[in-house]
Amino acid sequence: MGAEDDVECSSLHGGASTNVKNFTKVSLVPVTFLIFYGVSGGPFGVEDTVRAVGPLLTLVGFLIFPIIWSIPESLITAELCTMFPENGGYVVWVSSTLGPYWGFQLGWVKWMSGVVDNALYPVLFLDYIKSAVPVLAEGYPRTIAILVFVVALTYLNYRGLTVVGWVATALAIFTLLPFIVMGLIALPKLEPSRWFVVDLENVQWGLFFNTLFWNLNYWDAVSTVAGEIENPGKTLPKALFYAVPLVVSGYFFPLLFGTGAVPLNRDLWTDGYFSEIANIIGGVWLRLWVQGASAVSNMGSFLAEMSGDSFQLLGMAERGMLPDVFAKRSRYGTPPIGILFSASGVFLLSWLSFQEIVAAENFLYCFGMMLEFIAFVKLRIKYPAASRPYRIPLGTVGSILMCVPPTFFILVVMVLCSFKVMIVGFLAILVGLIMQPCLVYSDRKKWLSFSVSSELVDLQSGYHQVGEA
Prior knowledge:
The protein has 19 helices and no strands. By secondary structure, it is an all-alpha fold.
């Protein structure tokens, strides 16, 4: 695949170039914590797994699922990000293999999934602090609190990705510290027999898989800001390597101590319950610390998700998939229009319940991941000798086989969705199928301005110079 072919299959339109200034790149440490918050942000939101299946299956799930899903997804992300080191991430991968139409569809469902996902964090934030501030449990005070949360963190996103990355690093330390303290206090109170409780006749598989999947996906989200990362060929694989064990341990050990030190009542295990566990184990001071950590965690997750969503729109605009206005940058290097669109979607969706939001974003995410796996396999088969600063050390056949278990899990998650969620998901997909031809028509009629970045053309000219094997 030559440079001309790359440019042809990576954009909807031709046109004038756009100018991009050189902004400060993000280094290894903040990238690692951007991934941490893009995927996790700590154990807040995992409580429903215990309610769904009990302690044993929950603990086993958080050990097995990273092998089935998280590691393969992070490896694919590392390889394809170093192969295509530009903003837009997975949109670029799919556009370069399946064509711009399907690249746009992936971009649409992933952006929708990201916005739906980001709507969770104001909900989680308020669920954790409503016991301390009951007025925020419902009504106008809750709505105003959500609006303040969204506006304040949207402004911080506007100030720059480097700022967001270092803020995420500081927030992560504060987020994880109370659980380390809680674990130390819980040690004398642990009763290992509680870990092995299982009741197969009282299992909610849909809730379990949806919550598990939501807490351990989005490893590919960092790909949408690859163009903003310092030396992405080395930085991204290292950051993913460090982030995977950080995320998994941040879930597993709080669950281990929480289920082992407190008598089991599955009905109580819902979002926000870790603050009550902290109260039982350490007292009011520890509960307040966990509640504060939850607030901080949701801030970090919101920042990381919004950065990915807004830079994805910027990357799509630089490829001519969206109007030029989405490619405009502020003086801080951030895409203000993409930020505003993402923030508006978050606010509009934040009235939904936690479980409804998780199920809806999982359905959309699964559809997008199937396209990513197809793109990865096609690139390995069709362009085995193309330049890849990081290559999964399994060979082509091994890498393809690696995609089988997560693909099967995707189908399980989609089948277990409720009828309501399926309808909403299919309607969202249908909007994307219609929107792309409408944008192409708008370009032809000159109703909207589209163009391809000159810097993007220069970057793509070096992608596949190795040639085919």
